[in-house]
Target: Phage tail protein
Amino acid sequence: MSIPLQPIITKAGLTAVFRADNAGLAAEITHIVVGTLGYTPSSEQKTLRAQIAKYPIAGAQRLSPTQIHLTALADGTQAFWVKEVGFLLSDGTLLAVWSHPTEPLAYKPENADLLLAYDLALSALPANSVTINSLPGDLNLTLSGPLASLATAQLAADLRGLKQQDLLNEHGKRHESSETQLADLSGRVPVLERQRATDRDGLLGAITANAAGLVATQILFVTTKYGA
Model:
């Protein structure tokens, strides 16, 4: 799925397009740059504020004289939020920049690819004044579906892994709690056994004393009644 963008055209980009147009040429977008800082972009910018990666354009399609669909594949091991996007011309000039103070565009997972697919509105430039220079093979719209499915499957797998890890952690905590309770019970058993032994000895002593008292009482009764 493509994300429609209305970027800010930089003054440097506008100058580059003007030079190319005067020479009868179209300025060429060759790379997408992404960064991790969200803000309100300015036409004075010449670079992103927190650029983290640069990717060649992998596919392109002209949707209208002032709108271009382009794709790139963000690969690598890094994980980051895409909060600013820039579009570079063939000479390295930052043609346009998009960012938002609070809303990220996408998330690039660790050790996974992210498909960057944008419908770029360039209504602030002359019609057909910008074209795309893409990689051989052209990563076109026919691949966006499978790549998106792969990305969705990867995210789902990551989510399942996190849930399983949380479940394992919970079981581990319960196991530790059970072991603690068992150790506490094991420590209390000898105390209870000693108490039970003490109570039993006390009970036997009381029974013996009562029996002895009863015998003495009977002997006294007999002696008193019948004489020694």
Q: What stands out?
A: Residues 141-226 form the longest helix (86 residues). Residues 3-139 form one domain. The helical segments are 11-22, 141-226. The longest strand covers residues 27-35.
